[in-house]
Protein: HTH CENPB-type domain-containing protein
Organism: Candolleomyces eurysporus
Amino acid sequence: MVGRGLPVTVKKLQEAQDKEERLREAVKEYKDHIAAGKKTSYRVVGKKYDVDKSTLQRQVEGKGQTMLEFNATKQKLTPHEESVLVRFILESADRGFPLRHRDIIQYANVLRHSRLGSTCEGVGEAWVYRFLDRHHEHLQPHWSKSLDTQRARSLNPDAVKSWFDLVEKFIVDAGIAPENIYGMDESGFPTAYAGKERVIGARGTKTQHKQGGADRENVTAVVTICADGTQTRPLLIFKGKNIKESWVKGNSINAFVTCSDRGWTDGQIGCNWLKDVFEPDTREKAQGRTRVLLLDGHSSHYTIEFIELARKHNILLLGYPVLLDADVPFVWNFWWYKR
């Protein structure tokens, strides 16, 4: 099958890189000849490597910049910052958290603002495409699949192998003890019962369909279980602006209760949970050792602040594949209890 042709921008970049490499080789050969007392000239060496003799002379004498060096000074990120970003993108994908364009923009702007201040102009969507072109040898775009499609295909041999490779690399080979391995997931529940219950209707009719209450609201439960059978305090997220007294009344399991506009988790809630629940609840058992936290690769928790907070406390984040979510047994037990 014939592969896709390279974009024009990538071809131009490759040509510039090839020219740069020829120039470096020409400079080295000229200097080596002079150091060895051999007779040579800029014209002869330049012709051999197909570079302009004047450009070669300037480089030998240490004057001026190459075109790539000049272009680098106009980039929003320095070469080192771009290298850091590439490594972070690859590391995130390797751990089960592939980044989208908007994620790359966010992380790039963090690097840029940390160097130039928060008032400097950030990067945009067009910059991401140029960035990907510059690093096409390491980075490649992929189409993501819908969650339902992923769930239907998640148990294929490649997916299973990738999962166990991930576990072996970051958990087994790293010697992470079971008491420091945690799986976290979230599930939403309506506040009113949505299952089958006994109701009264006209004799001779079949199943009675009951309309769901208009006041039903979603509550998100976040649970975290450890490989040694223990668990941290659960997180409950109600829909609202402020926490109501009824939400925390009778909180026998000491759940961490909070709220959001939709009753869903978000980046800020995720950071608060990591800082106020997970880290202190698991700190004593860890005794300074690395803790592994497995979470959904599509989770809204995975923000810059969440990542930095985890890094600060030696918490390794890994994204588990679909159908391995912690919510499967949890959801079943929850609904069974509500019956």
About this structure: Residues 8-72 form one domain. The chain has three domains: 8-72, 75-134, 147-191+218-338. The beta strands are 181-190, 218-226, 235-239, 256-260, 291-296, 315-320.
